[in-house]
Specification:
Elements lengths: L4 E3 L2 E3 L1 H15 L3 H9 L2 H13 L6 E5 L5 H7 L4 E6 L2 H14 L4 E5 L12 E7 L8 H11 E12 L5 H13 L1 H9 L2 H13 L3 H10 L3 E8 L4 E7 L2
Parallel strand pairs: 3-4, 3-6, 4-5, 6-7
Antiparallel strand pairs: 1-2, 7-9, 8-9
Helix pairs in contact: 2-8, 8-9
């Protein structure tokens, strides 16, 4: 791991980034889902539906939903009969998810605090590994990808959905202006936390473009690594298989 990594515009130690990312999500946990609706105009719900349709969770499968936080993706997969372990490095996010699941009467979910870079699960524990809008906040992304490969069974599938910059020129400029000027203000008004949302916007800008991340997935050992971009790559579904 490098001696220094990016946290927004700053260069910090890997340990400092992990700590500060944890503080960001502890700060925004209670308003996280409301903010997702406001920042995406509700589009994140459609993206997650499309993502789960690609995963194709089946009854009786064991799925690890990493960075699962408040449970949006896990709930969709559990309703299809999968046994879902919802893991996140942030206990505050998981607590919000537990409460949401209880209110909905959802069962078959396991909640566990985990670091994506060093999972506690045994080798070959899961049929699928999912991570949605979370991997860009991981300090050592290659380590997290290797761990995803390790905990999957043979024939297991990896699915990740993440933001990046868009390659649609007009749309890219409009989104960048929105993200830079409006999202932090919404964060201040709704979540009382402008700086956390400035970090989240910057983390999107710094995340690799779809083809670059697809290569990282392949380098972790996955075959048939693929990238399915939406909105010119602003949102991309990445996938790969363990054989």
């Amino acid at each position: 791991m490098p001696e220094q990594v990016n946290f927004g515009h700053e260069l910090v130690s890997p340990e400092e980034k992990t700590r500060r990312v944890g503080e960001v999500f502890s700060s925004v946990a209670r308003r996280y889902d409301v903010m997702n609706d406001l920042m995406s105009g509700g589009m994140h719900r459609l993206w997650k539906d499309r993502f789960v349709a690609r995963v194709k969770p089946r009854p009786g499968e064991d799925i690890l939903d990493m960075a699962g936080g408040t449970g949006d993706v896990a709930f969709r997969m559990a309703r299809r009969g999968a046994r879902v372990t919802v893991s996140d490095i942030n206990a505050d996010m998981l607590e919000v998810g537990r409460q949401r699941a209880e209110r909905r009467g959802l069962e078959g979910l396991t909640w566990k605090v985990e670091n994506a870079e060093a999972l506690s699960f045994n080798d070959a524990s899961f049929d699928a590994y999912t991570i949605v809008f979370g991997i860009r906040n991981v300090t050592d992304i290659p380590a997290a990808l290797r761990e995803a490969h390790r905990v999957l069974r043979r024939g297991g599938r990896f699915f990740c959905m993440e933001f990046s910059s868009s390659d649609w020129p007009g749309f890219s400029n409009l989104y960048d202006a929105w993200a830079s000027n409006v999202i932090p203000r919404i964060g201040k008004a709704v979540a009382s936390d402008e700086e956390s949302y400035r970090y989240l916007v910057e983390s999107i800008r710094r995340f690799p473009r779809p083809n670059a991340f697809r290569k990282m997935v392949a380098e972790a050992g996955f075959v048939r690594a693929a990238a399915e971009p939406m909105l010119g790559g602003l949102v991309t579904i990445h996938s790969g298989w363990k054989i």
